[in-house]
Amino acid sequence: MDISPNHLTLKRPINVKAVVTPRWKDEVQQQLQAQINQVDGQLQQLDMQGQRAIAEIQKQSLQPPGPQTLQQIESIQIQVNEKKSELLEQKNQSLQNLQQVQLLELNQEVNQFQLEGLFSVQPGDNLISKMQVEILLRDGVVEEIRGDL
């Protein structure tokens, strides 16, 4: 390829799409289920840590607990509940994604992720068409490269 001295190398976003196949669906569903299971584990661990911290404070305090002890316990419960809300939101998002994947039709194209790539331009090139490049994968294998390379 003969490039004139007044060319420029630029970066462009490259959309990577996947063709929905039974294998692709299985892999994505397994990934999402693993995320859901991980969040469930984090929720259980969070509960145990919160209970342990509260039990430790109660063990070290006077009986009945004073206002400072009650404030510490309340603070722990607030922190645990905030983190729980965060984790439940993540789990909810993964569950919604799982449901969406199950509804996808075979051979449909879906956005997978985005990469950056370098390309050259020179006078006379159509910059807009050079910016619109995408890669299509089928089960992880490049099936097609679309656009002006």
UniProtKB/TrEMBL annotation:
<dbReference type="InterPro" id="IPR021297">
    <property type="entry name" value="YlqD"/>
</dbReference>
<keyword id="KW-0175">Coiled coil</keyword>
<protein>
    <recommendedName>
        <fullName>TFIIE beta domain-containing protein</fullName>
    </recommendedName>
</protein>
<feature type="coiled-coil region">
    <location>
        <begin position="73"/>
        <end position="101"/>
    </location>
</feature>
<dbReference type="Pfam" id="PF11068">
    <property type="entry name" value="YlqD"/>
</dbReference>
<dbReference type="GO" id="GO:0006367">
    <property type="term" value="P:transcription initiation at RNA polymerase II promoter"/>
</dbReference>
<dbReference type="InterPro" id="IPR003166">
    <property type="entry name" value="TFIIE_bsu_DNA-bd"/>
</dbReference>
<feature type="domain" description="TFIIE beta">
    <location>
        <begin position="35"/>
        <end position="128"/>
    </location>
</feature>
